[in-house]
Every structure is written in structure tokens, then in C-alpha cells.
Amino acid sequence: MKVGVLGTGNVGQSIGGKLVEVGHEVTMGSREAGNEKAVEWADAAGEGASEGDFAAAASFGEVVFNCTAGTASLDALDAAGADNLAGRPLIDVSNPLDFSRGMPPTLAISNTDSLAERIQAAFPEARVVKTLNTVNAGVMVDPGQVGGDHVLFLSGDDEEAKRVALGLLGEFGWPGGRVVDLGGIATARGPEMYLPLWLGMMGALGTPQFNIAIQR
Amino acid sequence: MKVGVLGTGNVGQSIGGKLVEVGHEVTMGSREAGNEKAVEWADAAGEGASEGDFAAAASFGEVVFNCTAGTASLDALDAAGADNLAGRPLIDVSNPLDFSRGMPPTLAISNTDSLAERIQAAFPEARVVKTLNTVNAGVMVDPGQVGGDHVLFLSGDDEEAKRVALGLLGEFGWPGGRVVDLGGIATARGPEMYLPLWLGMMGALGTPQFNIAIQR
């Protein structure tokens, strides 16, 4: 499958690398083609990996991952272009963390809205799925780093796009039974608003390499 | 120990009942003495259980639990009286859920503040500890209803008050190793903002009888 990965940070590199590893073709997108980190990533990831600007990555992908910083995501997606996103599953992995007030960060959008909803509203023809934002980049693509039946969450209005996301998550190592479908895209408020607790746990545990399991 | 429990709902009744069961004396507080639910509770809970208005319950308690609805908590604590709360561990179990916009509820306070911080700021001489708000009333006082090493969180500025809370949680059935100390009272934003995800999981699971475990 051809996948566009928007964002050159830790998350974009991890997801892009994993996608190439399991046999997909990936174009990593950044504000301008030739971004140093993207070029370095594409060279290291090898065959199937390329880079370009946001629009090039989005138009390349049958599926697009948003791995940009949450506060920059809407601008990045504008640059990617609504036409290039139309009809595609747009897997939103980002968190609207706002570091401008210092640490710990607050959320730039929350409570009565979420970044995922904002993206879906701004790009109504994209088929937005929120997932993966509740674990760190390493765990996203290698859930075996953490023991036990820890879980991910899934939110989105489009069932077919969710199925595509579930398939890719399965290739990342997440069995379907460990992905909790919360419902429509508005349910993304939950996983996004979980971030302050995640940050608190990270501080208490002294590591970002953890996740939660649901016990009944 | 003498404990004041503010609130006559499901949470207040569960916590009050458990406290009596393990040998404490409890006064349940409500807006006016003689509240029907409080009288009924006190009769059923038996020896060691009594009821009165918020001020009577707070002045009775060496420790006070806030089990009122989050959007009513500051008013209830005002009625309890700053003098009656001064110096006491004030264990805040409430969530600032706002149902006025319909379902699912939003949070009346969040992101840059939390109900626990608001309470600590309004009653600077009380020693506020946030805990227990991340599970339903049944699980709060009977964690064995859920399997596995599921956890609670603890936030507060006063270490001695946290130790008192940990002792009571131990009597409820929560071993200290399963209570994650997040830090000062501002860290209560995390467990409070977790509520939308908790509600989403409740919807997906079809039951409120669950909790999360931390996997590493």
C-alpha cells in the first residue's frame, strides 16, 4: 500500500519506518521537500521510502498518517491540500499539546472539542480515524516493548477507514482485540484528554515506555 | 477515626458504608440535616453512622471526604465551612462533570485548572488529596470486583494528608503499591481529565465495573 506520513519527528519516523519494514511504500512529508530529517530517514529506511512536501506525501498515499505536532497539524494538513486528503483514511496520531505555558503542557483544544474533530470538520472529505496517540512512538510500532494485554483506542465516523486503520495496527503488532473502538470521531476527546494523566504516569514511573490495560 | 462524608449519592453512601464497616464513625453531611437519603443510610449502616448538615459532618470528621457532585462541591464546602475544614485531610473524590450540554458530559473545570486545585485554593487550610475519582463507587470500596493489579492515582500538596488517604485506601482494599502518587495537587488535572476516556470505555465495554492497570 502507498502511505503518506506527514511529520518528520520521532512519531513520523517510527511509523514511517515500521510501514516500510512491513512492505509498504512511504513518502514522508514535511513543509518543504528536501527536509534534512526526512532525507536522512528515507536514506536509512531504504527501498520503498521517499520524501517530499506535505502535498506530495498526501497525494502519494492511499492512506495518510498525521504525525505532525498537534498545534501545527491543521496548517500542515492545509499545506497537504484538501483535494489530496479527500476520500483517504487520515489516521491522526497527534496530540494538541501546548507547551507555551511551560511544563506540564496544556491542551490547545479539549473538553468541548478535540483535534481529531477539528481536522474532520476542516477536511470533511477525509476519513479521519484517531488512534495511537495514547502511547509513545516506540510502543506504537512495537507493542511487545510492553507486557500484558495493553490497549489502544479508535475513534472515527467512517467504518471502512477504521477497518483500514485496524489492518495497519495489526501489522504494527496490535491484535484487533486490543483496540477499543470508542465510536464516532467525537469520542477522540477521551484519548486526547488522557494525555495529562499519561504525562503524570510517565513522571511517576520515570519512563514513557508503558501503557494501560483494561481490567474487568 | 471520625470521618465526615459530604454527599448522599451513590459515592457518599458507598464510602460512608465502607468506613463504618471497617470500624470508623461516620457523619454523612447534606445541605440540611434530616435529608431522607442520609437518614436512611445512617439507619441501615448501623452503629457508628449518623447524619447532619455539611457543617456538622465536616466538624465531626478528623478526615473529610468530598463525595458531592463536582459542580456542587465548592458550594457544599462553603456550607461545610472553612474553619471546619482547616487542618483536616480533605479527600476529594468528585468529578466536575457538567451534564448541562447533554451527553456525554463535558468538564466544568479542566486543562489549565482542576476541581481539586480550585478546592485547595478556596480552602487553603484544608489538606486536599485527590483520589478514587477514576473508578465507580462499587470499585472504590471493593477493588476485588475487578481482577488484576488495577490502579488508583493520588495527588496532593500535603504528604501527611496523603499518608492518611493511603491508610484509608488500604482499609478499602487498595494496597499501597497500586496507588500511583502523581505529585502535587495540580497533577489532579490528569485523573479528572481522564473521565471522558473512562466514559468512552464504559460505553464500549457496556459496564462501569472496570479499571485500568499500568503495564510496563
Oligomeric state of the chains present here: homodimer
3D shape of chain A: globular
The topology string of helices and strands of chain A comes to EHEHEHEHHEEEHEHEHEHHE
> What structural category do the secondary elements of chain A indicate?
alpha/beta
Largest sheet, strands/sense/barrel of chain A: 8 strands, mixed
DSSP summary, beta strand count of chain A: 11
CATH class of chain A: Alpha Beta
According to CATH, the homologous superfamily of chain A is: NAD(P)-binding Rossmann-like Domain
CATH architectural label of chain A: 3-Layer(aba) Sandwich
Q: TL;DR of this structure?
A:
The first copy, chain A, is α/β, with parallel strands linked by helices.
Can you offer a commentary on this structure?
Chain A starts with a strand and ends with a strand. Chain A is of the alpha/beta class and 216 residues long. Chain A has one domain (2-205): NAD(P)-binding Rossmann-like Domain (Rossmann fold, 3-Layer(aba) Sandwich), CATH 3.40.50.720. Chain A contains 10 helices and 11 strands. In chain A, the strands form 2 sheets. The first copy, chain A, has an 8-stranded mixed sheet, with helices on both faces. Chain A has helices at 10-21, 36-45, 54-60, 73-80, 82-85, 115-122, 137-141, 159-172, 189-193, 195-205, and strands at residues 2-6, 25-30, 49-53, 63-66, 89-92, 97-98, 106-107, 127-131, 152-156, 179-183, 211-215. Chain A binds chain B through residues 101, 106-107, 110-112, 146-150, 153, 180-183, 187, 189-191, 193-201, 203-205, 207, 209-216, and chain B through 101, 106-107, 110-112, 146-150, 153, 180-183, 187, 189-191, 193-201, 203-205, 207, 209-216.
